[in-house]
Structures are given as C-alpha cells and as structure tokens.
C-alpha cells in the first residue's frame, strides 16, 4: 500500500522512521463493518520523504483488508522493545487484539497504541494488488 503521511516535515518523518529498529510494527485501522482492527507487520518501508510516503504489505486474503482501502485512515505504531507481548497479541488471528491494550483515538478514530516509540497517522493513497 502506498500511503501519504500528511503534514509532517521530512526531518520529523526521518526521525520517526529511524525508530523502526525492531523490524515490526502494528498497523491499526477501522473496518467499516466490524470496527477497530490491528495487525503486526514486518514489511514496512520509507518510500519518500518529500512527499512523505511509506509502503507496507497486507495479504489479499486478510479479513482486515477493507479497513485499509484507498482513502481510509490508519496508524503505523512503531513498537518499543517492552511491547513484545503486544506484538505477539496482534500477530494472532481470531483473538480480541485490543484486550488489555491502552489506545488513544487518532485520525478518524483509528486506535493509536499507547507507549509506542513513534506513531504515523496516515491515509491510504494507493493500494497495489500483487502476488
């Protein structure tokens, strides 16, 4: 998914992306029918600092795919080392992923995971089906 990270300077974006040392993050969104969704990702990259663009991957078979349609808001939560259990919780299917996880509403009420090292509030600019 190609996305625009709105209203952020190249320096601030570089600083936030520099927090992605763990190789994993949690992407959260809001599914139009079922509400908040979240999943652990490891395929996350900076595409451009100006304009601010990031790229991440999601399986076309994911039940959360509708939450990340073009024009929809989402948050990339870059985790701290202390959030290992949260990372595992969001990697599992069929569980209440937000159970016991403290969140703050972001753009379009997308949950932002408290305690994250950095959070990027984004809007899906383009989705490219591959694979």
The gross shape turns out to be globular
The total beta strand count reads: 9
Biggest pleated sheet: 7 strands, antiparallel
**Radius of gyration, whole Å:** 14 Å
Q: Count every helix, treating DSSP H or I runs of 4 or more residues as helices.
A: 2
Which structural class best describes the helix and strand composition? Answer: mainly beta
CATH topology: Pnp Oxidase, Chain A
Helix and strand succession?
EHEEEEEHEEE
Outline:
This protein has 131 residues and is mainly beta. The chain is built from 2 helices and 9 strands.
Structural commentary:
This protein is mainly β and 131 residues long. It is globular. It is 12% helix and 37% strand. The protein has one domain (2-126): Pnp Oxidase, Chain A (Roll), CATH 2.30.110.10. Strands 3-2-6-9-1-5-4 form a seven-stranded antiparallel β-sheet. A two-stranded antiparallel sheet has the order 7-8.
